[in-house]
DNA sequence: GTCTATATCGCGATAGAC
DNA sequence: GTCTATCGCGATATAGAC
């Protein structure tokens, strides 16, 4: 692994475990096993490191919203996509903890992130439209209402891990699933009848796995 | 105004306009028109200042969830409460920008905030139950589902202003209203028929009676 | 590319006069 | 209560040898 790369990985780990303010370039260099001078040979300053990490995160997001083109998508595809999304959010959680502070300190980061976010939101809209096409979601009578729900899901997704952390709960991969479920709850009223049936089945299965000696409880209409 | 108080107000303003990391105790003292030494006479350190501000925010939250006891509550009461909530969130927005970083740096702040959040969430649940009682919300068949929606609204409320800011839009009082509307959208499927009609009237929108067996409302072309 | 050594700066915090 | 003066520290960043 190149030194440039090791710096990024080390920094990401340190940032995730502390705050960007507490992690100095000296700390990063030490943890990466190189000298401070060497670190500055590769990156002009800490902000440049953060920006480089952000680019990597952006690349990873690109792989989140992919859907199969050879078949109709189902509710399970939504679920898997959400899981992928949360996994990336988890890997770069430090960024979402301090997002606005970081953006304020570095206008360049701010601009770049706005571009990224715009693109991501666009991808997400396309994503949901595909599910409308394939009959997972009801066809929205009011597009602005539909967009509002997407925005709501967006806000929840991006802030779920932070919410867990502020509640004093340990932030573990298991919590990612709770976030996925929460988003499902918000989307539920907009699912088609067919998708709702699928969901009941899925949830029953999950329930079975969690409490294997009990029977799944299916909600009665 | 006492010096102690002026320090808090000045600090709040500075924090809102920059980040807590950029605002040093020297800056606060200077902006408050006192010496650094004097500042340290009143507060032992910057963290204590932030904690004091947080206590003030907590007090302000206490006034948000009050509801009239002499009459039934309506959808308008939800709206007004949300507006009050957003107003407080706006006044102390610096805290929500850096919440987790601040909590990590100061365990005492972290503990206190968790108490506060627990209490606030409790208040919010009571709040919504009142609206169920008074027929604004449908009686939930599944309490856990209801709680999930409340959690969703909580996450959205606390992060809406940050979302606006990260999108690069100016954060103005007008944006507060958009946040209120977004939360309404999420709650909409859980409103009673009666409340839905009220909402349509409030907004001056057409009420599509597709699922209504109540009095017809004039449709606009 | 990588190191050591060092310059510079400002922050947090305290001492002591008034 | 308020000020001035100051110390210690650690962070960012650079210079120059190898």
Plain-language structure description:
- Two copies of one chain form a homodimer.
- With 221 residues, chain A is mainly alpha-helical.
- The first copy, chain A, has helices at 3-17, 25-32, 36-42, 46-62, 75-91, 93-105, 107-133, 143-166, 173-187, 193-210.
- The N and C termini of chain A lie far apart (56 Å).
- Mean pLDDT of chain A is 90; it is low at 207-221.
- The structure holds a DNA duplex (18 and 18 nucleotides).
Global outline of chain A: elongated
Look at the helices and sheets of chain A and give the structural class. mainly alpha
Q: CATH superfamily assignment of the largest domain in chain A?
A: Tetracycline Repressor, domain 2
Helix fraction of chain A, binned, reads over 70%
Q: Got a strand count of chain A? A: 0
CATH architecture of the largest domain in chain A: Orthogonal Bundle
Number of helices of chain A: 10
What percentage of the residues of chain A does DSSP assign to strands (E)?
under 5%
Order of helices and strands of chain A: HHHHHHHHHH
Note the quaternary state here. Answer: homodimer
Chains forming the largest contact: A-B, 41 and 43 residues
CATH fold name of the largest domain in chain A:
Tetracycline Repressor, domain 2
> Quick one: CATH class of the largest domain in chain A?
Mainly Alpha
User: N-to-C terminal Cα separation of chain A, in Å?
Assistant: 56 Å
Would you identify the regions of chain A where 5 or more consecutive residues have pLDDT less than 50?
A: 207-221
Q: Averaged pLDDT of chain A, please?
A: 90
Outline the biggest β-sheet of chain A: none
Rg of chain A:
20 Å
